[in-house]
Design brief:
23% helix; alpha+beta; eight-stranded mixed beta barrel; globular
Length: 270
Amino acid sequence: MQFFFDHLVWFLKQPEKAMSPLNERGLHVVKGGRHESWGTYNTLTYFGLSYIEFLGIENLSIAEKHDENRLITQIVEQLAKENREGPATVAIRTNQIEELAIKLKTEGLTVYGPLTGERVRADGQVIKWSLLFPEYAENKLSLPFFIQWEKSDEERYSELAEQEVIGSHNLGQPKLESVGFVVDDLDKTLEIWSELLGLKKGEEYIDTELNARCRSLKLNGTNLLFFTPIGDGPAAKVLKEKGETPFLVNLIDTNQSHFFEMLDGYWRFR
């Protein structure tokens, strides 16, 4: 079963407010559209088929009605109740979502879905997909969710390029090289995620900028990095304030070298 990185979900009260600061950094951000049945809406920035979704709540009363869609229950809890913005979770792409649901259930996970979703794009076109949310009953370790698009990767890439959603960054052709997560137990988390996704683990190293132990999982499209703090620093600060969560975006081919905080998350331009 093959997996690809699809997107990082970033909670923002007003997703349109991601546009100006990212534009100033040379990144192209577009209005995505509305998920009318979920009460949410988004803006998007693409790096090939890997992208970042800035997701906000448009209608809380609709969003609060969802139990099965764990992304919506998460945004209601985290954004509406805890008032916490920033990177929240990642979506992994598959083209075997039904088979994956069966596999995860047989492995003892609680599985929500597959659920169908759709978004009305700014130009009126309806985009459709299916979502799957696995959870471990015995612990609070958060897992990625899975997505399967109605259209093929080739069709989607062609459409996005035609709309100039892909390849329109002012700073060149940056790639979303990796997304970083801060976790309490590096070894345990890496073992669970690598087993879930069947991914190869990279060698451990110390990230001096974040003051944390780090290891990677090699995923098609965009890698996953996991950090456990070894002392004070950005990783320890996020873990203390927010708990285990994605917190870092690594962009390469940006023709610059910067590490900075923006929109309640950390960014590395290389």
